Amino acid sequence: MLRFFSKYKFLAVVLLVLSIIAISIFYQILKPKIVLPVYQPAEVSTELVDSTIQHVKKYHRIADFSLVNQNGQTISQDNYKDKIYVADFFFTTCLTICPIMTDHMVVIQEQLKDDQEVLLLSHSVTPEIDSVAQLKKYALEKGVNDAKWNLVTGDKKQIYQLARKSYLAVKEDGDGGPHDMIHTENFILIDKKRRIRGFYDGTNREDIDKLMDDIKILKRER
């Protein structure tokens, strides 16, 4: 008996290795693939969505935009073409949630500093205060990497419409007048097709960790 096993020992090892490989392949085939949802206006709380698009159930995309960044450069959807990006809304004089949100954006920036596939985009909700010079000062103070992260200012009404009609991100509505202001703690994950794939609390570190995990999932999509 021992001579029998000795004679076929090599074959047994080969069969064992092949069995392990086969089981691994079958496991990968049968393992459920994690896919992030694609958020549509009709699926998001009506508090966060402009009334004109609350009925929309498909094909929602981030609208075209034209704003100015901390370096005085015009930033549009073309700068984010074929990119995954994280968007938020802030203002430089905020003393409550914005500093926390910005610190978390810095964390994301550092973790993705060598990743050319993912960018960041922060919209000022007080563009009358946040001039290019003010944004540049803020960017330098916070360690913003210009190649990775745009802080943008511009037409207030356009920014407010982006918040309500594109990013579906804020409860307070505004018409772009001198005394209104929108604000949200939401970070929004946008895919390469300009679709919303996730919402995260920008003040919550656990949510930031989930965002980073979701970016990895999104990058695996084809």
Q: In which range does the helix fraction lie?
A: 25-40%
Main sheet overview? 5 strands, mixed
Mean pLDDT metric: 88
Number of domains: 2
Radius of gyration: 23 Å
Q: In percent, how much strand structure appears in the residues? A: 15-25%
Structural description of this entry:
With 222 residues, this protein is α/β, with parallel strands linked by helices. It is 36% helix and 16% strand. The protein has six helices and seven strands. A five-stranded mixed beta sheet has the order 5-4-3-6-7. Strands 1-2 form a two-stranded antiparallel sheet.
Q: How do the strands and helices of this protein lay out in sequence?
A:
Elements: H1 2-7, H2 9-30, E1 66-68, E2 74-76, E3 84-90, H3 98-111, E4 118-124, H4 132-142, E5 149-152, H5 156-166, E6 186-190, E7 196-201, H6 205-219
Parallel strand pairs: 3-4, 4-5
Antiparallel strand pairs: 1-2, 3-6, 6-7
Offer a quick outline of the entry.
The protein is an alpha/beta fold and 222 residues long.
Annotation keywords:
222 residues, alpha/beta, Glutaredoxin, 2 domains, 5-stranded mixed beta sheet
